[in-house]
Amino acid sequence: REQIEQLSSPVFCGRAGLAILRSRASAMAESVVVGVRVRPFNEREINLKATVCIDMQGPTTIITGPTGIPQTFAFDQSFWSHDDYITEESGYCSPRPGGRYADQRYVFDTFGQRVLDNAWTGYHCCLFAYGQTGAGKSYSMVGYGANKGIVPISCEEIFKRVNSNTDREKRFEIQVSMVEIYNETVQDLFIPFDQRPKNGFQIRESKALGIYVDGIVKNAVDSYSAIERAIDQGTANRSVGSTQMNATSSRAHTVITIEFKQVEKFGGVENVKVSNINLIDLAGSEKAAQTGATGDRLKEGSAINKS
Asked: What is the pTM of this model?
């Protein structure tokens, strides 16, 4: 994760049944906000007859261990997504009437929206998910089916804002890149696997650009459908594998960077404001004894925990 910290500053995290969201905003607002999310039991936990040891009340998370003594932790937001939901015909999971279920839209409105607000004012910002393998990080960040996560909703919202602009003196330029850190090497997910450099891409720093990955592809996009196709292409190239704890475990850290440029004319002079929005899905930390990892899976797990 040291390499990811070089690329950005903020966060979205989790462990065990929790997924913690962190985002860094402007110094004028909050610098770092942290949220934690609990998901429903998966098939493995149901078969183990697991019981719920977590409760949430507003921003407070309460964990009651084997001793029966509750421990209380305060975050900026605690998202209860364990139960209290209904599955609509479209497949979308929404809260029951009067229920406390935090759906995908609510999570975005709470954290993703403030990231976009700060990007619009010209700040670099970041949101990332961290936690144990199977905690639900990819679900919160990317989502599945009708339950879109923070990444696709953010992309949709960006172009809603762009398309609502009525100022003829103002235009927007948007580029997207997508990389993963797999076994301690940085790879471009927009480049086919057999065409990637064996030793990956280098992270560099300059006074003009700050910290960047040298040589990666940046796709210019002009609509939500264009950015959706680009991210779908990169997602299809992600490194995933099956373990005993997660059938579709991410085996690499994934960084989606949306370069958002606002060009505005004042008195015939163009002023450019550039913001980088970093949306990061970290591979889950894991214990080999619990995942049953051997061979390549064990090597990947070691690299995940190391980075």
From this structure: 0.80
